[in-house]
Amino acid sequence: MTQPTLTDHIAYACLTQPCRDGLSDQACIRWVNPDLSVADLTYAHFEGQSNRLAHVLKNLGVQPADVVSVFLPRSPLLLSAFFAALKNLALSCVLFSTLGEEALLDRLGSSQARVIITKHSLLPKLLAIRPQLPALQHILLVDGPADLPPAVLALDPLLSAAPNTFDYPHQVDPETPAFLQYTSGSTGKPKGALHVHGALKDMCSSFTDIMLPTPRDLFWCTADPAWITGLVYGIIAPLAARIPQLQFSGGYRAAHWMQLIADHRVTIWYTAPTALRMLMQEPPETFTQPDLSSLQRIYSVGEPLNPEIFAWGQKTFHRDIYDTWFQSETGSMMITNHPGMPVKPGSMGLPRHGVEVHICDEELQPVPTGRQGHLCLKKGWGSMFRTYYQRPEAYREKFSRDLYITGDLARRDEDGYVWYVSRADDVINTGGHLVGPFEVESALLELPEVADVAVIGAADPLLHQKIVAFLVLPQGLAWSRQLELKCRLHVANHVSTTAIPAEFRQVDRIPKNQSGKILRRVLKALYEGQDPGDLSTME
Amino acid sequence: MDIKERLTSVFHQVFANDTIQLTETMTADDVEGWDSFSHINLIIAVELEFNIEFSQREVMTFENVGALLSCIQDHLALQGRGDSVRSLL
């Protein structure tokens, strides 16, 4: 039996190898805190911190293939925690710190996470669901008081006692699991896309081929590391490619963002259309007062990039904005615009080298050029997800023959450019976050004031799509702002702030078919003032 | 309860965290979960608590808790003037 060709372990390529190559003291990340104070962090910093944390995890009994969840806001320790899990050959699962209790329970429950690393202010959410997580053995707190509840450990003393070096295999079988990336579907619970160490090559080559970084650049990816973009292009690819990068742990503020670009001379900027649309609302001096001349290239991901933003980018930054497209499942950029190719504003661009795109009809047969259909990719690229964790049937449903069905509708023009049309399913893309209507509906139905509910995505000039909830209230109950606040807070605390409906509408009943399935197209049409079409299947 | 105490209680409710201690310089970066989505929850909760209504312009200009407090005080002062005028009629 032949041995598989080994590949670099992701942590080795990102941290250990640069240190071995004499770059230990080189700053790999310029970390900017919310108050704009700065720390230049070296490869040695992350290597040492992740080694100590890897020891802590090992001493707690973490085994290869166990899941270690990281439930922290963006911070240097989040990065070290990610690599520490990998160094134990465990699966890392970085979760948005904005997740509410139920969303957290879904993800920790389905991944059967054994350890979670979090902070004191997020602990109440975890303790509330702790009894429903039998696989969860340890909660590690990066901060907080000395008197902790049972089974909650303070990380600091454990880290202080741990050695600065850690033995782990630097080369691994390419199929060795590395991390889980949770993504929402149109029905059912969120699914954890599993990625392997062998994905590293695609992640790096897509970064270097499309963004053309050099060691003299300063790269800034604004995405949260709990998002596939933030993990792959905010952590893994720049570290492995040894490209200096900036990380900002503050939130969106136009003046701060522009100041960061000007003060630190950011050259390559990877952000999202919603952020760009928010910037478009700012007065012109926001962009003329700071010296933004360092910016060489701007890239966008997460939602379609409207031609209006592209034109605004040219006028404001004197640069093209290159749209890119990929998903949690694809692991790296699949369809892109980049320097050296003519950009067609509004288009997703061209398939990256080695990526085969097919636009197919309902039977998954190719459609003629210019006709819209299901956006499919020929399977087999290196960074392709390997399964949905513990959900093999859901994984199989994403493939037909040798095609991965992305869930997006698109068309392709005579020059081969791909144009996004919409989602093929009910998943809502709001500000770049994919939200499954089922999660929001389930949360709202828990309230006694909600008798029935349906959620749709409606076009929004800022967020691409906004969440609209249609509510049926029990007889005699009137809609009020107090009830709206209760609904909003319930979704925020149980699902996520990104899942809060932007609009609530009271209706007499929810349109459903005879098997009880919500007819979202009817609600959408009614919301948009369109003809709802064939209603013969309605119950 | 004074205005700051009432506002603190609103923050506890909106961010489901009763350990938050408000300071005037506190910003969204200092409070877990205070993002552009939950900001709207905060605004609605404050309006309901104090029975006031912020303008769109005001909502966009809250740089920190101090600015929010000051805006609430302005609204309440205006209401107070209205009340005193009404009481004279």
Give your account of this protein's structure.
The complex is a heterodimer of chains A (539) and B (89). With 539 residues, chain A is an alpha/beta fold. Among the domains of chain A are: 42-195, Rossmann fold, CATH 3.40.50; 428-527, ANL, C-terminal domain (GMP Synthetase, Chain A, domain 3). Chain A contains 16 helices and 29 strands. Chain A has a nine-stranded mixed beta sheet with strand order 3-2-13-12-14-15-16-17-18. A five-stranded parallel beta sheet of chain A has the order 5-4-6-7-8. In chain A, helix 1 (10-23) crosses helix 2, helix 1 (10-23) runs parallel beside helix 8 (228-241) and helix 2 (43-59) packs across helix 3. The relative contact order of chain A is 0.10. The model of chain A has no long low-confidence stretch (mean pLDDT 94). Chain B has 89 residues and is mostly helical. Chain B has one domain: Non-ribosomal Peptide Synthetase Peptidyl Carrier Protein, Chain A. Helix content of chain B is 63%, strand content 0%. The radius of gyration of chain B is 14 Å and the shape is globular. Residues 82-89 of chain B have low confidence and may be disordered. Classes of the chains: A alpha/beta (539), B mainly alpha (89). The A-B interface holds A 34-35, 73, 97-98, 121-122, 124-125, 249-252, 481-482, 484-485, 488-489, 492-493, 497-498, 500 and B 13-14, 16-17, 19, 27-30, 32-38, 40-41, 44-45, 47-48.
Helices, strands, pairings?
The complex is a heterodimer of chains A (539) and B (89).
Chain A: E1 7-8, H1 10-23, E2 27-32, E3 38-42, H2 43-59, E4 67-71, H3 76-87, E5 91-94, H4 101-111, E6 115-118, H5 123-129, E7 138-141, E8 152-154, H6 155-160, E9 171-172, E10 177-183, E11 191-196, H7 200-211, E12 219-221, H8 228-241, E13 245-248, H9 254-264, E14 268-271, H10 273-280, H11 285-288, E15 297-300, H12 307-317, E16 321-325, E17 335-336, E18 350-351, E19 357-360, E20 373-378, E21 387-388, H13 392-396, E22 399-400, E23 403-412, E24 418-423, E25 428-430, E26 433-435, H14 437-445, E27 452-460, E28 464-472, H15 481-494, E29 503-506, H16 520-527
Parallel strand pairs in A: 2-13, 4-5, 4-6, 6-7, 7-8, 12-13, 12-14, 14-15, 15-16, 28-29
Antiparallel strand pairs in A: 1-9, 2-3, 10-11, 11-21, 16-17, 17-18, 19-20, 20-23, 22-23, 23-24, 25-26, 27-28
Chain B: H1 3-14, H2 36-50, H3 56-60, H4 65-88
